[in-house]
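Lay summary. Proteins are chains of building blocks that fold into shapes, and those shapes determine what they do. In this project we predict the shape from the chain. Here is one chain we studied, written as its sequence of building blocks.
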Amino acid sequence: MKIDAHQHFWVYSPEEYDWIGEQETVLKRNFLPSDLKAILLENNLNGCVAVQARQTNEETQWLIELANTNDIIKGVVGWIDLRSDTLDIDLQQYESSTVLKGFRHVLQGEKAAFMLEPEFIRGLKVLEQKNYTYDLLVYAHQLPQTIELAKQFSSLRLVIDHIAKPAIKANEGFEEWKAAMVQLARQPNIYCKVSGMVTEADIHNWNPEQFTPYLDVIFTEFGSKRVMFGSDWPVCLLAERYKQVKDIVEDYVKQKYSAYYDDVFGKNAETFYQLA
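And here is the predicted shape, written in a compact code that computers can read:
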């Protein structure tokens, strides 16, 4: 099974998606499974993992409903309030859902210390006990705290979204980012998504070679079994069409790590998210 391990759906409204900027008009419309299905087929992919774009319980329920009626959605990463005193009870509503695989919070929008708060860590420990996954959406400058967080978990399946959003456009902080990713990769329960790179570059003036140093680090450190492709569709449309985004990773893998191809474009996502 060939999988896009990271994309989003939404029914657009300015109130619900206030993170979409005034100039980002390409994103100001609905993006639904019917839009993505043909794109996946054109790109030789069988399915996707739908990741939350709103921090509400309604978002999680909606994504589950979409997955239950659209067979291209193989897994859902929802949102839940990890700091809630009733987290155990809140999770009970999802016990019968086989498509809900894990959760995510937009940590990039929080202060770096947020992820180290005792209530947040307590919530992650509950997810660990219940065999859910957790997507870490952070900026590169938050990696020191991410490392401290990760040290507290040995069996919780964690994945770094968008290679931790290094400053590709500014071409700054590469060595610091690399050192942090090397440290994270030492933990076998941590995976990395090669996704979201084009929107961290200059969206109007990028080239595939810009991403090679970053991909070299990820593949060298995480190896063949802990890297997965994600398109970040439709956000990627700010910079390029789906095929061109996939081509960045596909061409790199074919040239340097051809034996990893099936793992990166499907098997690792199946393993991490326990996709059926």
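What the prediction tells us: The longest strand covers residues 73-78.
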